[in-house]
């Protein structure tokens, strides 16, 4: 697979939001680490990067995103 095909797959409508969020988190992590010098904000941005990358990776497995969404809804859906 070449860079042209990889870019086309990254900008696929299914993956475009995860790609944008991941790219934004990378920039935020760099700004926090190099300009602001905040360790806590950098760690939060890195955690967001990992979550976005995980969500992006799930788009390659059929029905994986739906399964993870349903499991998290069932785990965290509580009545007060």
UniProtKB/TrEMBL annotation:
The chain crosses the membrane at residues 16-36, 42-64. GO terms for biological process: protein transport. It comes from the Eukaryota. The keyword Protein transport applies. InterPro entries: Vesicle_transpt_Got1/SFT2, Vesicle_transpt_SFT2. It is a multi-pass membrane protein. It is found in: Membrane. One of its GO terms (cellular component) is membrane. The keyword Lipid biosynthesis does not apply. Keywords: Membrane, Protein transport, Transmembrane, Transmembrane helix, Transport. Belongs to the SFT2 family. PANTHER family: VESICLE TRANSPORT PROTEIN (PTHR23137:SF29), VESICLE TRANSPORT PROTEIN-RELATED (PTHR23137). May be involved in fusion of retrograde transport vesicles derived from an endocytic compartment with the Golgi complex. This is Vesicle transport protein. The lineage of its organism: Eukaryota, Viridiplantae, Streptophyta, Embryophyta, Tracheophyta.
């Amino acid at each position: 697979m070449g860079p042209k095909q990889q870019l086309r797959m990254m900008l696929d409508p299914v993956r475009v939001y995860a790609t944008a969020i991941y790219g934004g988190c990378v920039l935020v992590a760099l700004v926090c680490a190099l300009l602001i010098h905040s360790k806590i904000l950098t760690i939060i941005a890195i955690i967001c990067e990992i979550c976005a990358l995980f969500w992006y990776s799930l788009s390659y497995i059929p029905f994986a995103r739906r399964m993870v969404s349903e499991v998290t809804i069932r785990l965290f859906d509580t009545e007060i």
